[in-house]
Amino acid sequence: MRVDDHAHVFTFKTFLTRAAEADLKVRLMAWHLSEAAANDAVRLAKAVLLGENADVRLAAFAATWGLGGSPILEFLRRGCLPDIGAVTDALMADTATAAEEADAAAVLLMMDVVDQDSTPEELALYETQFTQTADQAERYPGRALPFVMINPLRGNAALDYLRRGLDEGRCVGVKLYPSLGYTVTDPMIPKILRACQDAAAPIIMHCNDAGFCGPGYDCTYCSPMDWQDAVADYDVRFDFAHFGDHTKGNAASDTHPSWRDFITTLMDRFPDRVYADVSYQSGPLGTPEEREAYVAWLKGQLANEKRGKNILFGTDSFLIFLATTARNYWDFFKTALGDDFNRIAVENPARFLGLPAAGTAPDPNTALGRHVAYLRERKNAPDSRFGQGSAPAGWLAGLL
């Protein structure tokens, strides 16, 4: 089963706080939109949330800014969809087509962009996102694999999502995003890591110098140098997302050694625990020379006995549409790696996620074991959505 280890299905309705809005403008401008166009994109999203027709607004936006055919339009369209189920349907269709497998899976990473100034109404958006994202696991059993995002900026309320995600079996792992405004020294981090260790739940942590970054903070909160002791102290499978990618010309991340190189040293030290995914990286999106150099580097890592087992495929859909299409991103890696693609899309994700061999039950005390029990319970619930998106994945055979 091929897996996209890094994807998102939030909607603007479940995500667009004031903090997220400011970050979104920065991300749009990073891909060659003017400040005026970025502001107009945010106005478009807000207008659709208030009931305006998304297709009409998108057509007007494209005409105004000369963006006909740009993948950014698909990014905006998906964000404007009415619910997370609709975004998930689009993602899973993309994934099955690009993977050339009807059974292909995707990790659904939640996003909770809040800060100390967020209003009660903004804080409440994540509850809807959490519930709707967890529901997708029921609709696409064994194929849609939710990771609950824990944001310490919520205070102790964040721990309730940890409990509901892992203890209740709604999610199979945890997402961290330090550049939103917290460091590895936050007192909540040991509680999160201990809970993941106890539940054998993997962690995916944002790790590059871009993405969403809280005002007044900086990307170095994601530095793998800072998180190496946490990796050493807890027996947790830990994915440094985006492989510590650096944006060319970003002075804030001009560090030595590079984050990418440092992550590979962590793989050497902790071969059973440290992973990295290749989602939304500058190399595959660069010039022909940069793409060629990236492929040579990646093949070199895959040839390494330890590192080759710990590299994961991911797209960062639907955020990847800010730069290219998800299909193009899949095709780049399938073409570049040939037969080796299945190592990063099948074998390594199965190990990272803890997926058992078909028909083999996972430990019931682990996050994945609880997730299987949750799916089994929901299958026969009166309000069940079980299998509405697809039949259960093959690895669930005989377990439900």
From TrEMBL:
Highest taxon, organism lineage: Bacteria
Any one Gene Ontology molecular-function term assigned to this protein's record: hydrolase activity
Keywords assigned: Hydrolase
Keyword GTP-binding found: no
Keyword presence, Hydrolase: yes
Entries under Pfam families matching the protein: Amidohydro_2
Domain Amidohydrolase-related, first and last residues per copy: 98-355
Protein name, entry field: Amidohydrolase 2
Organism: Solidesulfovibrio fructosivorans JJ]
Lineage: Bacteria, Pseudomonadati, Thermodesulfobacteriota, Desulfovibrionia, Desulfovibrionales
